[in-house]
Each structure stands twice: as C-alpha cells, then as structure tokens.
Amino acid sequence: RIQKDIDDGINYAEGNITVAELVERYLALKQGVRYATRVTYDFVKNLLQKEPFSQRKISDIKGSDVQKWIIKLHADGRGYSTLTSVCGILRPAFQMACREDMIRKNPFDFKLADIVPNDSQKRIALTEEQQKERRDELEDFDDDDEEDDSDIEDEAPAEKKATKIGFVVIG
Question: Which residues touch 2 (CB under 8 Å, ≥6 apart)?
C-alpha cells in the first residue's frame, strides 16, 4: 500500500499527522470568520480534545471508523446539531488532506442522516396572539402574587415576571 501511495503522489509522511493536528491546520486557514463561527470552531476543537479519535493518524482512518465514532458520540448523548458541527469541520479538513495528497479518500464522505437519526426539535416562534396571551398571563400572575415580591422589589416589573416564570417576553 505504501508503494502504491508513493507512486500515486500520496505524501505518506504528511498522512502521519493526527486528526487534531489536521483540524488545527485547517482552522488556521479560516480567517475573518464571524464570532459565532469561531465559537463553533472552538467548541468542536474542545470536543475533539476529549476524544481518543483525535489522536489517530489521518492515514489510518477509514470511513467505517468515522461512522462508528459518530454513532458513539450520538450514543454518548451528543445531539444531531453537534454532530453536524463536528462533520462540518472534519469533512472539509479531510478534503483538504485529500487535495494536498496526504490521504487518498475522504472518510467523512457520507450523509450524517444515513448514520444517525435527525432527532432535533424544530423551534416554532410564538404568533402575535400567543405572545399577547403570555404577557396577559404574566400580568395576571404578577397581580396574584404581589405579597411575595419583597425579595425582588428593586427589579423592574418585566424582570419580576421573568424571575417568577423563567422567561422574558419581549414586546
């Protein structure tokens, strides 16, 4: 296999870097990204640091290894959106390794939905009517419970309501 890689221009020495090193190398090229994107990059790097998978050599990783690892992450309680973020960084990092002849094939070349179920919940915004109903409920709740407000007397009315209910209605 090594001779075939050499004959095909695959740089065997370059393929000996770890997954973590590849991700660092890939992310170092990502300049000028938004703050939220940088936060996602840091989150994925931190997740990778905790995983033995990140210490494996990229030249030794097969598609089935990646799929088993993704299934393990899902079984460990990682959500579908987290797995999407992980694959969203590792897939192009490994694609870069392919372009630079470090490896022959991208082991992340699969659809995530074919490996783990998309169990994420879609969030639905409240309609104007529902928002009005919530504000009315908060006002009713505040009126019913005036005597218990002594410990939060310094707060504005909306903050009192948020403290009691656990969320803030903006409007």
Answer: 12
What is the enclosing helix (H) or strand (E) of 164?
helix 157-165
CA distance 147 to 165: 16
Neighbours of 44 (CB within 10 A): 19
pLDDT, tens only, 24-62: 999 999 999 999 999 999 999 999 999 999 999 998 999
pLDDT band at 14 (very low <50, low <70, confident <90, very high): low
Determine the pLDDT at residue 100: 85
If phi over 0 gives left and psi between -120 and 50 gives alpha, with beta otherwise, what is residue 32?
left
Calpha distance 51→13 (Å, rounded)? 23
Query: What is the sign of the dihedral through the CA atoms of 108, 42, 38 and 115?
Result: positive
d(CA 76, CA 92): 24
Contact partners, residue 64, CB within 8 Å, separation at least 6: none
Can you state the angle between helices 157-165 and 128-144, rounded to 10 degrees?
90
Burial (0-12, 13-18, 19+ Cβ within 10 Å), 17: middle
